[in-house]
């Protein structure tokens, strides 16, 4: 089948490469000519394991092409996917100007019946608006073309994007049109091998499903972070509590890892957006508002532990902290809403110097951080030299079993703050570290 995919961010490029891999002809449209040039040369502008290989192979075999010209992209395309960004506005609502612009572009340039697929995460009601804008543009040019608008939210995770797309838990298809649903199912058949994996529903329910899924996962994380904070107070260990509750199949083990709060491009934005939508309808979403508040507080839990530890030594001002991990999670260079940035901002604000290392996100932080007080180094152990303590903020594999003797030698004092509960408290204590983690009182307290 012929597909046009507008927007080559995470969702757009991963979808395009995976659809091309299963034999479709996919033309990607992006407004940025530099990005198009890079992609044509087989270079991927985002960090995502396995993606570059897929893009290279399908580009070389002629199934995957790139253009800045939407007219060219839409030529012969049965499906037009909208996969552009929907950034947050300061009030938490979604900025839909890119989505709306693409809808207008489609209306102005489509030449035949087209199934327009909303894959960007968009508030309930957006598909109706997209339909209206396309209709308006068609009317302006007197074109009586038929089209359909489907909501098809994407659930892939950064870092696992290709495998999540290739083996989805489910494919949500929001449409009332039976034929369109069948065509969408055929497109997804190579990925959703069992037909039950395609869940067909109304457009608004599909739009809502994406928010409900992300808000549910964010709620699990804020819940366990709250439990972790209470564990510290009462002398329990959240790692045991997690096992104790996760073994109940109704609860499950996943997404109940306590840590430094959720970050990334989706959870913070989507929780805020659903709160905003609910309030537009005069409904106060108390639970979601708390999920968001608990997360904001959690992002500073580690920084506050560091501050409290150094209080007895004249405060954090003038001290140096080595920090491992800047990305919002492992296996990505994405630093959007990353807890590490909040931690750095807080501690640098109190006069501390931070020397940080991340396997891939360092450059992104260096470009963004102009305020001083932060030095990004390109080797893990180079961050430690003469620092007063080490804080681990992202769970990269290479941080999981470090050479503790070397760490101890390089640091001024063996003090370890673990924002991801990566280490065994017993073993690090044996190595002579003062060890502080999440949801468990430090041994000395
Ligand atoms: C998320 C959803 O998982 C995905 O389905 C959706 O399409 C986009 O948003 P992503 O943002 O890539 O994906 O990351 P994810 O792996 O879900 O992690 C989100 C944040 O939660 C990270 O900051 C992570 O560190 C944190 N997290 C996750 C926890 O703190 N504890 C957990 O148990 C799980």
UniProtKB/TrEMBL annotation:
One of its GO terms (molecular function) is NAD binding. It comes from the Bacteria. One of its GO terms (biological process) is polysaccharide biosynthetic process. Pathway: Nucleotide-sugar biosynthesis; UDP-alpha-D-glucuronate biosynthesis; UDP-alpha-D-glucuronate from UDP-alpha-D-glucose: step 1/1. Keywords: NAD, Oxidoreductase. Its EC number is 1.1.1.22. Substrate binds at residues 155-158, 210, 255-259, 263, 329. Pfam families: UDPG_MGDP_dh, UDPG_MGDP_dh_C, UDPG_MGDP_dh_N. It catalyses: UDP-alpha-D-glucose + 2 NAD(+) + H2O = UDP-alpha-D-glucuronate + 2 NADH + 3 H(+). InterPro entries: 6-PGluconate_DH-like_C_sf (IPR008927), NAD(P)-bd_dom_sf (IPR036291), UDP-Glc/GDP-Man (IPR017476), UDP-Glc/GDP-Man_DH_C (IPR014027), UDP-Glc/GDP-Man_DH_C_sf (IPR036220), UDP-Glc/GDP-Man_DH_dimer (IPR014026), UDP-Glc/GDP-Man_DH_N (IPR001732), UDPglc_DH_bac (IPR028357). NAD(+) binds at residues 30, 86, 121, 158, 269, 336. Residues 322-425 form the UDP-glucose/GDP-mannose dehydrogenase C-terminal domain. Catalyzes the conversion of UDP-glucose into UDP-glucuronate, one of the precursors of teichuronic acid. Belongs to the UDP-glucose/GDP-mannose dehydrogenase family. PANTHER family: UDP-GLUCOSE 6-DEHYDROGENASE TUAD. This is UDP-glucose 6-dehydrogenase. It comes from Megalodesulfovibrio gigas (strain ATCC 19364 / DSM 1382 / NCIMB 9332 / VKM B-1759) (Desulfovibrio gigas).
